[in-house]
Write a structure and sequence with these properties.
Layout lengths: L1 H29 L9 E3 L6 H11 L6 H8 L5 E7 L4 H14 L4 E7 L4 H8 L8 E6 L8 H5 L12 H4 L5 E5 L3 E3 L3 H5 L11 E5 L9 H4 L10 E9 H6 L13 H12 L7 H11 L4 E3 L18 H6 L3 E3 L11 H12 L6 H13 L6 H4 L2 H21 L1
Parallel strand pairs: 2-3, 2-5, 3-4, 7-9
Antiparallel strand pairs: 1-4, 5-8, 6-10, 7-8
Length: 403
């Protein structure tokens, strides 16, 4: 009898385990990224017809690809990166995505918000990239609250204020790195993503200061509205714990009652729309002026802009460690005003995946940078390749260990 009881208990244990496993698989199958009207597609390996079929089935939300299965069963290991592209920003956005792919370690999920006429071009380009199984993406239309869509869309640059609504659209995404289209990653996305672990209990987002030098700062000299800190903050690189953002009630200067993210945006716009120059970035400055405990500030080399060198070098952290993230605002990737920035952009844009990074990217770039020493930024050109050199060395070291 004891032997039969043991057998019965063993069978019962197996049945419970099977039930728990089935429930976990069901939960995973129900887990989906928010479509926002877009269609999720898995990056396609240009290898065999079988691989293409797997990628296509993953794009339909089916677990047909090993890469897709990995994404779905290891959600905590996936980094989410969002960008908003309108107008003539296709090439610039693709170049940014290329820079993110080159060095990053953990899987990436790109959330690309773009005008409808750009969707097919994004699909054609992205699905030809050899992602090495670590990237997938979702395309979304540009969407604003229906009652005020026209007003939000024309605020500052076309579609720029879309970033304000990401916590409300991507409801199932816990944390997100938003970047402008004119961003270039010179080290793994993993490294800025790690700042999420440094947030204290009150912090919900991380950004860099707008300026390091108050004498050339815009906000402290010209702003007609509240702004964060001494020189304001720049929203071109914005790391967000979106779960915390959605839960938080924000102090404000419109009502004694604290308001949630979705409640505060339109009242802020109505109050300050005649006094803001930089659109949604100004609204973020106002919000964090009233809620400074909610912001984590990271150093300037994580959002390095022309202002850090065109009047003389003023980002000391970049001088010591190099530039981690390059932000080519002012259109400097596409004109001759700041050739140092343009040289980095063109080097990454022209790099072919799989080529040797030293001979095909780093060395040609350094030669071009040496031609820019007649400019203030060119005089410190070594800060543009200091971290890039280390990132390439670290990448090859990881590959050697993986063999």
């Amino acid at each position: 009898m004891r032997r039969l009881a043991r057998v019965a208990l063993l069978c019962l244990g197996c049945a419970v385990c099977s039930l728990l496993y089935g429930l976990s698989q069901l939960a995973l199958s129900l887990e989906q990224e928010p479509g926002g009207g877009g269609r999720e597609r898995q990056a396609r390996e240009p290898a065999t017809p079988g691989a293409r079929r797997q990628a296509e089935s993953a794009g339909r939300g089916e677990a047909g690809s090993g890469r897709y299965d990995y994404m779905k069963t290891h959600p905590s290991e996936k980094m989410h990166l969002a960008v908003v592209a309108c107008g003539e920003r296709l090439e610039e956005t693709v170049t940014m995505l290329r820079s993110a792919i080159i060095f990053s370690i953990k899987p990436l999920h790109f959330h690309i918000f773009a005008e409808d006429q750009l969707h097919e071009s994004f699909k054609d380009i992205l699905e030809e990239f050899p992602y090495e199984g670590k990237v997938n993406y979702t395309l979304y239309p540009i969407t604003f609250p229906s009652e005020s869509a026209a007003e939000w869309k024309k605020l500052f640059k076309p579609c720029a204020s879309q970033r304000l609504f990401l916590p409300l659209i991507l409801k199932n995404v816990d944390s997100l790195l938003y970047v402008d289209t004119d961003i270039l990653f010179l080290r793994p996305v993993d490294d800025i993503w790690s700042f999420l672990g440094k947030f204290n209990s009150t912090q919900i987002a991380a950004m860099a200061p707008e300026h390091e030098e108050p004498r050339i700062g815009w906000y402290n000299r010209f702003a007609r509205h509240p702004y964060y800190g001494v020189t304001g903050i720049n929203s071109g690189v914005m790391l967000m714990n979106m779960t915390r953002i959605r839960r938080k009630y924000f102090k404000n200067d419109m009502t004694p009652v604290r308001l949630q993210w979705g409640e505060i945006l339109m009242p802020l716009l109505k109050k300050y729309k005649l006094n803001i120059t930089w659109g949604d970035q100004d609204l973020l400055n106002i919000m964090f002026f009233h809620n400074p405990e909610s912001l984590y500030v990271f150093p300037c080399q994580w959002n390095y802009r022309p202002d850090h060198c065109i009047y003389g070098s003023n980002c000391k952290a970049a001088e010591e460690e190099g530039i981690f993230i390059l932000h080519g605002n002012r259109g400097v990737y596409h004109d001759d005003k700041q050739p140092t920035f343009r040289a980095v952009y063109e080097a990454i844009r022209n790099y072919s995946f799989g080529d040797d990074l030293v001979h095909s990217l780093l060395q040609p770039l350094e030669q071009e940078l040496q031609k820019t020493t007649h400019t203030y930024c060119g005089r410190v050109y070594k800060v543009f390749i200091k971290q890039l050199t280390k990132s390439i060395r670290d990448l090859y070291a990881r590959r050697s260990k993986g063999r």
